[in-house]
Amino acid sequence: MWLEGWEETLGALAPRAWAFLTRASLLIAAADLAALAVAFAVLRPPGPAAAAAATAAVPASRGGVAWLPAAAAALAAEAAAVLPGWALAGGAAAVSLAAAMLAAPPRVRVGLLRRLMHALVRRSCTDMWELHAVWGRGLSYGREYWVAESEGGGGQVVAGAALRYGAALRPPPPPPPPAGGADVTAGGGGGGRGAAKAAEEEEDATGFNRFERKLQGPGGGLLPTDAVLFRMVTDSRLRRRGIGKALVGRMVDRAAEVGGGRLLLTSANPHALAFYKACGFGPLHELPGGGATLWRALDGGGGGKAGL
Q: Pro residues composition bias: which ranges (predicted)?
């Protein structure tokens, strides 16, 4: 369900993402051709030797460039004789890729971007594949994951959201297990503990890591009394029924309960941003390349309640 929630974001960002990738492929092709031109100018034999090299490189049986002007055909033949085959192959591949990017139909573009998006999400959001290991360790570790379940539906999860807490909002962590004892707080084997450790790395005195600080504001503008809302998703079949709004309201209350001063979130999905603004969030700053960070003041006042 959570991965499917990225589909709306994909639809909003696909045209811009494909345009960026196309420009990148064109720049690579141009740079490759420029490098070939420089190499040709340096390696080209002077005077009559050039003509001899061109004649030797293009036997009559391979004269497949007769449709070109004579000067261009001679230049191409000379380049084939002077430049290494791998360099010419690289240039042809770069040009072919740029042409394919320009000519690809919309369905192909979206399909390729979807595969890329899924790969990036799975690699960068590893916490979502080991929920119990990363999120089941309690407030002491600065993170909680909340879900909404359907009433009378056998506990079916219909929405979910994560909260990340600054250092001032956390109680002291539990003592380490005794020597030789098993660490059961990670919810399982070594892979879970490794995922939890990776999710917590690079935290500074505010309680947030470098990636979180970069997303939430210029210069990392996060405070130890801040809470961050993310990983928010609602079952696409059950949207516009108030489920998402109710879950956001509970997240606001929860962040205030632990003493948070602000609740922040970041999104590149214009529909999601409109939804959050309707839930009382206001703009904090725009993100390069699209998207924005929103915030909302909390009744907790930022005093912290580390004893909870």
A: 170-179
Domain residue spans of the chain: 6-123, 126-170+190-297
In angstroms, the CA 286 to CA 49 distance is: 60
Q: 266 phi and psi, to 5 degrees?
A: -130, 140
Sign for the pseudo-dihedral over CA of 235, 18, 290, 12: negative
How many C-beta neighbours within 10 Å does residue 175 have?
6
Give the pairing type, strands 262-267 and 282-286.
unpaired
- The sign one gets for the Cα dihedral 106, 111, 116, 118 is positive
Residue that is written with structure tokens 């492929």 in the block: 25
Q: Collapsing DSSP states into helix, strand and coil, what is residue 217?
A: coil
Per DSSP (E only), the strands in the chain are 143-149, 157-165, 226-234, 262-267, 282-286, 292-297
- Start-to-end CA distance of the chain, whole Å, equals 31
The class of domain 126-170+190-297 in CATH terms is: alpha beta
Nearest to 215 by CA among 284, 114, 127: 284
Question: pLDDT tens digit string along 152-170?
Answer: 666 677 788 889 898 889 8
Q: What's the token pair of residue 257?
A: 């309960």
Tally of CB atoms within 10 A around 46: 6
Count CB atoms within 10 A of the CB of residue 58: 19
> Per-residue pLDDT tens for 221-268?
788 999 999 888 888 787 788 888 999 999 999 999 999 999 999 888
DSSP state of 69: -
CA distance 163 to 12: 25
Both tokens of 89, joined, read 């192959």
The bridge status of strand 292-297 relative to strand 262-267 is antiparallel
Q: Phi then psi for 63, rounded to 5 degrees?
A: -80, 60
